[in-house]
Amino acid sequence: MAVQIRLRLARERLRAVLAHDTGRYITLVTNRVNNRAKILAPVDTGTLRSRHTPNVRVLRSRVVGTVTVKVRYAAAVHEGWSQGPRIIRARRRKALKFVYNGRVVIVRQVRWPGARFRGRPWLRSALHDIAGPAGFRVHNTRFFGT
After folding, report:
1. Residues whose CB is less than 8 angstroms from the CB of residue 122 and which lie 6 or more positions away in sequence, other chains included
2. Segment 134-146 mean pLDDT
3. Residues in a beta bridge with 65
4. CB-based burial of residue 120 (10 Å sphere; 0-12 exposed, 13-18 middle, 19+ buried)?
5. pLDDT at 52
6. What φ, ψ does residue 81 adopt, rounded to 5°?
7. Range list of β-strands (E), the chain
8. Which among 71, 7, 12, 10 has a CA at the least distance from the CA of 43?
9. CB 29 within 8 A of CB 136
10. What is the mean pLDDT of residues 34-53?
11. Other CB atoms within 10 Å distance of the CB of residue 123
12. pLDDT value for 16
């Protein structure tokens, strides 16, 4: 015969316990990840570095800490981007005119080979540097839903 025991805690009490003990630790680690991410963020104008926002919240039976960067180009810098090759044609005139190797060139179209930018995953690096030694399991996942 199996014995089954159920414990029911009040939701508010559970949230209070989680928010108190675990929440403090999660807040501490989240703030450390935020600070490390700010140090590792690539700097051109400083906007990317200044827009890091830490947030800790209680969701049902878990405490979740996040670091968000609210800049439109953050995902492209973090994960990288690429554009495929394409043909560039004149839109307003009959031909394109530009200087190449010191000579003026006039053509109807040019082939652009494309471009690729390797990402600089500063958030992932900060997470591995801080959360791993703090006792959290860190999975290699892509951020920003890309």
Report:
1. 37, 40, 41, 42, 78
2. 67
3. 56
4. middle
5. 92
6. -150, 165
7. 52-59, 62-69, 80-83, 86-89, 96-100, 103-107, 109-112, 115-118
8. 71
9. yes
10. 91
11. 22
12. 67
User: Both tokens of residue 72?
Assistant: 């439109």
Encoding tokens for residue 114?
A: 């494309």
- The amino acid sitting at 11 is R
CA angle 77–80–85, rounded 5-degree value: 130
| Both tokens assigned to 73 | 């180009």
Give 71-126 pLDDT, tens digit per residue.
898 888 988 889 999 999 999 999 999 999 999 999 999 999 998 989 899 988 99
CB distance 79 to 124 below 8 Å: no
What one-character-per-residue DSSP string does 54-78 give? EEEEEETTEEEEEEEE--TTHHHHH
pLDDT digits (tens, 9 = 90+) for 11-23: 666 666 656 777 7
Cβ neighbourhood burial of 127 (10 Å; 0-12, 13-18, 19+): buried
pTM of the model: 0.69
Handedness of CA 34, 40, 41, 47 (dihedral sign): positive
